[in-house]
Structure formats: structure tokens, C-alpha cells
Amino acid sequence: MREYPVPLPVQGEEKLMFKLSGREFIAVLTGLIFGGIAASLLSICLNTQFLLTLPVAIPFIALTAYPTFKRVKKIDANIGLDRYIVLRLSFRKRPRHYLMLRK
Question: Is the whole-model pTM more than 0.70?
Fold first, then answer.
């Protein structure tokens, strides 16, 4: 069976704040919020200053920022890794059996 490459939707996103698009800004902000929550909970549990537990937030920021800014070159498209993963998962859910077999 032949497979034909489907072009990925590539549209230029408007830059909103700090030369980031809305999607990128929300992803980084989410990492900052979850990292801040984790650092503040750790500082409360250990009864230390917040600045001493701030390095706990770095993995949260990295986990949200890396897929956002990593570019994937696939089928003449240069899109972010997060968009690529979402599109790949959505295309996997499509039905692939179009012909019914005769009994």
C-alpha cells in the first residue's frame, strides 16, 4: 500500500511577548508556575528560605521549554516538538481500515 506524505500545517505564529508566540509563552509560564509551586512546597516542608530551594524549579522549566523550542524538520516543515507530538498522536487515532473484507 502506498503512503503519501501529508503536509503539516505550517503557519507563522504572531509574536506576543518577549519575542515568543502565545503558545511558547504559555508553555514557559506553566513551567515557571509548577517549578515555583514545587520550590515553595519544599521550602515550607524543610523550613528554609525560598531562594535555597529555587534550583528545584529548573527541571520543571526545562521540561516545558525544551519541547517548545526544539524544532523538528519533517516533510518540508520546521515545527516545534510539542506540535509534532500532538499532530503525530492525532494522526495515529484515525481509522485505517477502509475496506470491508468479504466473508
Answer: no
